[in-house]
Structures are given as structure tokens and as C-alpha cells.
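Thread title: Can someone regenerate the structure for this chain?

I was given the following input by a collaborator and told the matching C-alpha cells would be attached. They weren't. Posting the sequence so someone can regenerate them.
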Amino acid sequence: MVALPWSAGLYKPADGTELHVLTSNLPLNRFRDVPRFLMWTMRIRTQLKTAEGCAGYTLDAQPFVKTFWTLSAWSDKQAMEKFVHSGVHARMLEDMKGRLGDPHFADSTATPADLPLSWADAHARIKRIS
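Best answer:
Regenerated them for you:
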């Protein structure tokens, strides 16, 4: 397991603000897709640095089992959706079509005091819905 450190986004929430949290589990179908996914990951991290409404993000890469986890905190669900369907991330979705197994996504909430978010909590959220 290679978890990248939490990176703060541009959005600086006020104390007591409720944040939208997205946790995802992204299994790949084939090992040969791992390098492609990693390339997209680096590009998406660049997009995240300037994403409107992003409070922070991290990635837990498990390339030897073809599985990647993402964890991000946003000002609201609309900001997260806008990010997902724009720029590099939107191009990645198109390119990776058919290369993902059965992805799982969990929406939850957090406060600024919870940042950086915990991977243990994120993994537990996904396991509850899978």
C-alpha cells in the first residue's frame, strides 16, 4: 500500500463548515492498465491543485493488486461533480472506460477539524457499502 500524503486544496473552509467527502475504490481489470491509470493520476493531481471547492485530496495506490483508492474533501457535492466532469478528469473517464472492474463510491461529510482525512475511516466507509 502506497498512500500519498494529504494535499490541501485551494478551498479553505471556515470552522464548523460541513464538507462533502468522496471516497472511491477503483479496481482495474488488467495489470497492463496500471501504468495508464498512474499517468492519469499524476495529471489529475495537477488539476486538483487548482480545483475550485477542493479542500484536500489523497490517493492510496495498490498497484500489485490493481486497486486504487481516492479520498477528497470538497466545499459541496456540486463542486466535486464539476471537477469530475471537467478537464483532465473528464478525459480520464473516457479513456479508462472498460478498464475498471467494479468501482465503489461513498459520499460522506466531515468538518475542517477532521482534515486531513483518515484512510482507516475511508476504507471502512467503502466496506460498509460493498
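The first helix runs from residue 34 to 49.
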